[in-house]
Amino acid sequence: xxxxxxxxxxxxxxxxxxxxxxxxxxxxxxxxxxxxxxxxxxxxxxxxxxxxxxxxxxxxxxxxxxxxxxxxxxxxxxxxxxxxxxxxxxxxxxxxxxxxxxxxxxxxxxxxxxxxxxxxxxxxxxxxxxxxxxxxxxxxxxxxxxxxxxxxxxxxxxxxxxxxxxxxxxxxxxxxxxxxxxxxxxxxxxxxxxxxxxxxxxxxxxxxxxxxxxxxxxxxxxxx
Length: 224
Prior knowledge:
Pfam families: Sensor (PF13796). By secondary structure, this protein is mainly alpha-helical. It has one domain (2-223).
């Protein structure tokens, strides 16, 4: 439990948050295209195969996402799936579709795009502002006119054209860097909790899995 409460590693958090937008775009594109094509061609049975492929792809992608969360954020997410029943494929597919984890996996990848967009925007905005302010004493002399004008070149409320004048801005940039580090870890931690809520087992699922394993152990003992 202690590992769940501590902040995720900073470097992994940055990489994780920046990856979410491209992964979210890819996931949203695949989900919407396969869903539309599958529903549109379901009457000729081609769509059924596409939807079945989508279900398998989502469950497989969810396994990879749990691994990504663990590798970058140091948060382990238990698998929520019960073993599939032996026998006909129809029974196995029925178990997959009745499993709420399948639909929670699907929901996670649908929300990954808007969530990734928000995270990417916040991270890039805070870090670009922080680094620009912190480095102002170094690069202001290479700006057009050899000075930095706030808030813009056309509206010059403040002018920074010397290292001394740039130092207060650099101090503000250092403060923003500290805020950016805290924001990055907070966003990553929040995303990890969301991933655990959608990709991990619920309390009811944990109980069902425990009962399943207890029954399996009893059957093995009887068979032995």
